[in-house]
């Protein structure tokens, strides 16, 4: 989002994504979609074709689009990279955050990449989410974590995930047609004390 691009929020996350991509994604498979500034990837047009979207676009080159309303039939298995940079934390409902992750897996090709950026307190100081639970949620919808970065006392956590090959039952899972473990579908307290209430539910 444009707010998250500010230096007071941690700066442009595309720098981390571009640092990680070489060696993980063939140059011919550089298409990405995410919520970014329109010129974030201009220097990399030789191998990246990106389509920036935002719920309320403030720039003519950013498509105004609700990620949760993207047509599944025409986009399933069509994307190589999806960047959800400071996006999940702006989705109001915990279950819609889970739906966004399921849709991301639906839209990605097998072995595609999902880049997630969250405010660090969403993972380190949440009553309902820690890194282990985030890993479980991602695995349940078909992702494995390949890279993670954060600084102790920092503002953000960066997570890069690989879309794993799905079985027939797994293909139903990321579409929400198969039951998930109960600890991933309802809020379960993981920490006590003064915490925030950020959660992701499937």
Automatic annotation (TrEMBL):
The entry's keywords: Methyltransferase, S-adenosyl-L-methionine, Transferase
GO molecular function, one term: rRNA (adenine) methyltransferase activity
GO CC, alphabetical: nucleolus
Pfam families: Bmt2
The name this protein goes by in its record: 25S rRNA adenine-N(1) methyltransferase
Organism encoding this protein: Hydnum rufescens UP504
């Amino acid at each position: 989002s444009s707010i998250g691009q500010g230096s007071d929020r941690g700066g442009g996350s595309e720098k981390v994504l571009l640092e990680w991509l070489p060696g993980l994604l063939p140059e011919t498979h550089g298409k990405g979609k995410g919520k970014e500034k329109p010129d974030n990837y201009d220097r990399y047009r030789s191998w990246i074709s990106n389509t920036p979207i935002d719920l309320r676009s403030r720039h003519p080159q950013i498509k105004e689009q609700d990620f949760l309303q993207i047509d599944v039939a025409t986009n399933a298995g069509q994307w190589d990279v999806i960047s959800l940079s400071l996006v999940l934390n702006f989705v109001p409902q915990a279950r819609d955050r889970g739906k966004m992750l399921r849709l991301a897996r639906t839209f990605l090709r097998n072995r595609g990449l999902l880049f997630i950026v969250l405010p660090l307190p969403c993972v380190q100081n949440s009553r309902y989410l820690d890194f282990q639970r985030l890993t479980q949620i991602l695995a349940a919808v078909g992702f494995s974590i390949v890279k993670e970065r954060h600084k102790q006392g920092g503002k953000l956590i960066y997570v890069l995930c690989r879309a794993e090959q799905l079985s027939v039952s797994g293909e139903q899972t990321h579409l929400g047609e198969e039951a998930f473990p109960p600890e991933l579908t309802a809020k379960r307290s993981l920490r006590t004390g003064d915490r925030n209430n950020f959660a992701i539910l499937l």
